[in-house]
Amino acid sequence: SSHFKWMFYWLVNLNSAVVFVSISYIQQSVARNLGFLIPFVSVLMAMITIHMVRGEMIYKPKTESSLLTTFGVITSALKTCCVRYRCLSGGVTNWLDHAKENYGGRYSEAQVESTKSLARLFPLFAFQILYRTCIMQIPSGYYLQTMNSNLNFSGFVLPIAAMNVISIVPLLILVPILECINSCLFSSKGSRHSLTIYIVAGQLCAALSVMVAGFSEMHRKRFPQVEQTLSKEVLLVSSMPCFHLAPQYILLGVAEALVTPCCSLLSFRLVPERIRGISMHFLTLFNGAGCFIGAFIVQTVHTGSRGNWFPHLLHEGKLERFFFFLASLMMANTLGFWTIAHSQEYTKEFRGSLPEAKPLQHQKAIKFYDSVLDCSPILSPMETT
């Protein structure tokens, strides 16, 4: 559990704040190419360092916990279902059971049950795709809004990417506070705590952030245009100060503080130990899918509206309509997640214990796998990878 200490998550975001301010300033005000050179040299030095200490960092997982084994179980079960034209027949309660040795497959009970526990997390992963699309508005839609706003602050032109720091500040403040709150709840006997509350609240904050961005865009257009020099290029931008966009950045920062640690923790703790690494990889895969889905939505909206909802010149288009559309999708996504998380039919699939699952000391009557999304207070919301 020390892998998920909140201090790690806090330090990562503190480092991000420093990077956004320093590198963005160098790239915008000193030299654009130098802004690319610094990260390149940093990554190169990190690779050299890792190579030098690789002997102390190598970890050899068990052979049965490999990703190939997980895909092998799924492939074997699908093949059996296709050949025999049946999914839940033959005395099995789950289609993955066809991969077991006692049902004609070639995988052990533990391997199949581990894969089943991972498959049950897929709804949790799927509902993070649209959420990640909203988070990716910071380097896309929010970036365009900031670039077309007045960055002049007391005679100093702020770097555009420095606005990202506003979304990081809530993380630096909320992470230790939520950790303390969770510790107090854990210390009190009889208290139960559901991580779904954090995730739902975070997704609502993301939807509200995108909605506020739409109203901010309407507000930004009411200001007269002024000339502003960015990277030696003169642009016509709104005279609205860029700090008027701070609320939408803050809300996304709050959303990240609530959602990301909880999802990482659930992905790590709700599967047997042998496939925890694979579970974290799938969460990362679905988060990456959110970036591609976001790009697809932007392209679709741009093409469907003929450049009106996502225009090249923000002052002439209706970018706020895109934000309102995305906020509506995010609200539907949050409602769907809440429904799935508290569905009686859904939670029945997760009752009982899995191979290698250790019994909890706190409230022994409470089963750890009673639900894939509702957990006891032993799961700290601020623990993360």
Written description of the protein model:
InterPro entries: MFS_trans_sf, POT_fam. This protein is mostly helical. The chain has a domain at 120-370: Growth Hormone, Chain: A. It is 60% helix and 4% strand. It has 13 helices and four strands. The protein has helices at 6-30, 32-52, 54-57, 67-84, 109-119, 122-135, 141-147, 164-187, 195-220, 246-269, 276-304, 319-341, 344-347; strands at 152-153, 156-157, 225-230, 233-238. Helix 4 (67-84) packs across helix 5 (109-119), helix 8 (164-187) packs across helix 10 (246-269) and helix 9 packs antiparallel against helix 12. It starts with 5 loop residues before the first helix and ends in a 38-residue tail after the last helix.
The rough form would be described as globular
Please report the distance between the alpha carbons of the first and last residues: 10 Å
CATH architecture of the domain at 120-370: Up-down Bundle
Number of strands: 4
CATH class of the domain at 120-370, please?
Mainly Alpha
Largest sheet, in brief, is:
2 strands, antiparallel
At the fourth level of CATH, the homologous superfamily of the domain at 120-370 is MFS general substrate transporter like domains
Report the β-strand fraction as a percent range. Answer: under 5%
Order of helices and strands: HHHHHHHEEHHEEHHHH
Question: Which ranges are low-confidence, i.e. pLDDT below 50, for 5 or more consecutive residues?
Answer: 187-193, 344-385
Strand order, sheet with most strands: 1-2
Q: What is the SS-derived class? A: mainly alpha
Kindly state the mean pLDDT as a whole number? 77
Number of helices: 13
Quaternary structure annotation: single chain
Radius of gyration using CA atoms only = 24 Å
* CATH-defined topology of the domain at 120-370: Growth Hormone, Chain: A
**What is the helix fraction of residues, given as a range?**
55-70%
